[in-house]
């Protein structure tokens, strides 16, 4: 059981909470995707969201969305931990192979876009089987950990407008590539 609303980690230099950073980047992403013609449905657009993780997943399952993009920032006890991490669902509980493949492709393309635009270090891609938001999802889903707020250098970057814009550009490019992949009918 997790709290419905949690602030997550906090920037070691900026003192900005993860939930605040996530919302800032998500609102920028909503605008960028909408400018490209996407219909974006947000789980939250304010600092308050009283839905549990199961309720959030049920919300996006019923929304008619084609893809769920979860935006987060990482934290670690080590101030040296760094890099962008992509998380996609694993197959321990999910048996829908098409959903797993689409989630992996979305994660791959979005990670490529973010790394290309930010020049950040990759912390890799992890297949996770312990996230409610993955295991209850019926649509493709991925979770982007934008960097470590517990790393002073990354905290400063993550909280700069220009770096956030690079992340958003990378995600937007990745979504474009993913849509091309989905619409091509060539599921490799």
From TrEMBL:
Keyword vocabulary terms for this entry: Hydrolase
MurNAc-LAA domain span: 57-176
Key word Hydrolase present: yes
Nuclease is among the record's keywords: no
Gene Ontology biological process terms from the UniProt entry: peptidoglycan catabolic process
One term of GO molecular function: N-acetylmuramoyl-L-alanine amidase activity
UniProt-listed SUPFAM superfamilies: Zn-dependent exopeptidases
Entry-linked CDD domains: MurNAc-LAA
InterPro entries in the record: MurNAc-LAA_cat (IPR002508), N-acetylmuramoyl_amidase_3 (IPR050695)
EC numbers, comma separated: 3.5.1.28
GO cellular component: outer membrane-bounded periplasmic space
PANTHER family hit by this protein: N-ACETYLMURAMOYL-L-ALANINE AMIDASE, N-ACETYLMURAMOYL-L-ALANINE AMIDASE AMIC
Protein name: N-acetylmuramoyl-L-alanine amidase
Record organism: Ruminiclostridium cellobioparum subsp. termitidis CT1112
Lineage, broadest ranks: Bacteria, Bacillati, Bacillota, Clostridia, Eubacteriales
């Amino acid at each position: 059981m997790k709290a419905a609303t949690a602030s997550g980690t906090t920037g070691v230099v900026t003192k900005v909470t993860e939930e605040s950073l996530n919302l800032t980047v998500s609102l920028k992403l909503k605008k960028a995707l909408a400018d490209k013609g996407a219909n974006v449905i947000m789980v939250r657009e304010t600092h308050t969201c009283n839905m549990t993780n199961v309720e959030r997943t049920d919300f996006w399952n019923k929304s008619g969305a084609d893809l769920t993009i979860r935006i987060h920032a990482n934290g670690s006890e080590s101030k040296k931990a760094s890099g962008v991490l992509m998380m996609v669902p694993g197959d321990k509980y999910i048996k829908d192979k098409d959903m797993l493949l689409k989630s992996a492709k979305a994660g791959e393309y979005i990670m490529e876009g973010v790394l290309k635009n930010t020049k950040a270090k990759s912390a890799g891609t992890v297949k996770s089987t312990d996230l409610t938001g993955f295991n209850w999802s019926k649509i493709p889903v991925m979770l982007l950990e934008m960097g470590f707020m517990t790393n002073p250098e990354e905290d400063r970057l993550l909280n700069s407008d220009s770096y956030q814009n690079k992340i958003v550009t990378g995600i937007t490019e990745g979504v474009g590539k993913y849509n091309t992949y989905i619409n091509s009918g060539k599921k490799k």
